[in-house]
Design brief:
The chain is mainly α.
Amino acid sequence: MLYHLAQQLQDVVGAFRLFNYLTFRAILGILTALVFAFVFGPWMIEKLYHFKFGQVVRDDGPQTHLKKSGTPTMGGTLILAGVTVSTLMWADLSNRFVWFALLVTVAFGLVGFADDFKKIKYRSSKGLSAREKYFWLSLAGFAISAAIHFTARTPVETALIVPLFKDVVIPLGWFFIPWAYLVIVGTSNAVNLTDGLDGLAIMPCVLVASALAVFAYASGNVKIATYLGIPSIAGVGELAVFCTAIAGAGLGFLWFNAYPAQVFMGDVGALALGAALGVVAVLVRQEIVLAIMGGVFVAETVSVILQVASYKLYKRRIFRMAPLHHHYELKGWPEPKIIVRFWIVTLILVLVGLATLKVR
């Protein structure tokens, strides 16, 4: 909104021409979301305590988690609000990519909100049934995937780009819709599985979102995209504002979510953030790079799949408990050590992902 206002005022006051620079608005995006979280975070936590929106901890999980019961949850609403406000303020609202990202983030956030609310209402660790959750996530995922496919203006917008190779572009055709669906819904659930320790999921989300902002900016700039050998997609650069808003809101939330957490993200935040990362990767055509940078999310998901498969087939458990972070908890690792080491691994993987921009 303020971006469009600045467009009207720049002929009167020259300083408003600054808003034409995407990098400037991206910086404003991260700062606005960060300040929003700092300002409204304490108020939100107080309200969550007032309404007794406390976390219900599973009794079959690590025993150290039982002391966390009653800690306010649904803190992801702060992240959602911060991202939405910041994006609406500084992004070009005539840009279709911005609306794709916002809509899928809010839609997945609403499913997470319903799941969290049901857990709180019935004082149970079980919220929406797996069938209910899968239906609504799938509906939103397929809808946005189809919308991206049908509004694509160039073939590269629906082609699979293989990193490290300049000329490997695989047209997906109609297969783009289920592919995009899998990326968006899969990433959403992967982040949700990772969100099990204080601050464990939010920092990797911040790091990956920041890297995706670089990809969005580069893909939206014809000269940079041509030089780097990545797909040039007109208008996709605006997603840099959306990504930096995620980074700002995430860092602001981490202020309250760092160990020992004053508030938990809940499904409302985890499902929304995962979907946001997934849809941005789809729009900038970097799904494979997302899998590299989000390696922690992938490892957490694979650990659950392997654990379930092994137990059903052989009645044996590969890990002491899944997802993977619980395995290390039961091995005796202190929670802060697990969290920081997962952050370090994510930082390394993000740097590897960024390196693919040059190594082609």
